[in-house]
Specification:
The protein folds into two domains: 190 residues, Spore Coat Polysaccharide Biosynthesis Protein SpsA, Chain A (Alpha-Beta Complex); 114 residues, no CATH class. With 317 residues, it is an alpha/beta fold.
Length: 317
């Protein structure tokens, strides 16, 4: 019988007491030999009882104060002993087959990393539920894995230099691109599906999350031409043109801008709605996704503005 690898579960956390108990409890219930699983909580300067909760569950706590999320994840990995690194977040509840399914999938030739879909809790709001897509019933390739559900071998992780420590968000997108550049594939695995407890519950919260955390630093030049980046920039420019046209009375441009502000969220909503949703049918799902992505891009636009103001102030000073 082939020996199972040791697995290190790495959880970045900051003031995570709201959900951390549920997260750690779910990890303690996975169907995998207990002595082969270690849990590391990389604590990014919490002022609540995050560290105490982690210790109660037997997790190792690493001080990761003042670091960006990529560096927090990397610091946790640096303290890990496992041959497999399983990254998740403090607001995630994993299923019992999460680790064993990931380990099995990593054994497939040509696979670089694996993960699974993120579901919303059944008690979630319509905004939370609309984010989710149907669980896949078989392994399938994907172009990107979420940092909240990202399982990779230690050697490949080290070879690629881990997560980018210089960017605010999208460190998972960046690592996904690095893996694909090695001619390896990313897999979504049914048994690796998780439940995300921390989805924004309202449209306002969704927009504010983008303002606060939707970073503007592009990790590589190619990312400038990715669809979501282009759509975010298109929405932002359309919003600026609309405001200028309203002030100057150019109502023809107003109409064009309004059309773009309508179409950009619709494009993304339509694409996501085709993937299915476990709570709603496709048409109903599409109708809910449009306002969600409108507020998503609105938040991105506010973030772009905030970033530009901050840079301007820095140049002046």
């Amino acid at each position: 019988m082939e020996l199972l690898p040791a697995v290190s579960v790495i959880i970045p956390a900051r003031n995570a007491s709201k959900y951390l108990r549920q997260c750690l409890s779910s990890i303690a219930s996975v169907e995998y030999p207990r002595h082969l699983v270690e849990v590391i909580v990389a604590d990014n300067g919490s002022t609540d009882d995050t560290a105490e909760i982690a210790t109660q569950f037997g997790a190792a706590v690493v001080d990761a104060s003042g670091l960006k999320v990529g560096a927090v994840r990397n610091l946790g990995a640096a303290h890990a002993r496992g041959d497999v690194l399983a990254f998740t977040d403090s607001d995630i509840v994993v299923g019992t087959t999460w680790i064993v399914s990931a380990v099995e999938a990593l054994g497939v030739v040509g696979v670089g990393a694996v993960g699974g879909v993120c579901r919303a809790p059944e008690t979630g709001t319509w905004v939370e539920k609309a984010w989710t897509t149907c669980s896949c019933d078989s392994m399938r390739k994907t172009n990107c894995l979420a940092g909240s559900n990202f399982v990779i071998g230690r050697e490949l992780f080290k070879k690629l230099g881990g997560f980018d420590e210089t960017i605010v968000v999208a460190e998972d997108d960046d690592l996904s691109r690095k893996i694909i550049s090695q001619e390896l594939i990313l897999l979504n695995v049914p048994g690796c599906a998780v439940t995300h407890l921390g989805y924004p519950a309202t449209l306002g919260a969704l927009a504010m999350r983008q303002v606060l955390f939707g970073g503007t630093v592009v990790p590589c030049p190619l990312a400038l031409f990715e669809a979501m980046t282009l759509l975010a920039v298109t929405f932002y420019l359309s919003l600026i043109v609309l405001l200028v046209a309203l002030v100057t009375g150019q109502y023809g441009k107003c109409l064009i801008s309004l059309m773009m502000l309508f179409l950009v969220p619709l494009i993304v909503a339509a694409k996501k709605a085709t993937k299915g949703n476990e709570f709603y049918n496709n048409i109903y799902h599409l109708c809910m996704l449009w306002p969600i992505y409108f507020f998503y891009f609105l938040g991105k636009s506010l973030r772009f503005t905030k970033y530009a103001v901050e840079k301007s102030k820095a140049l002046v000073n």
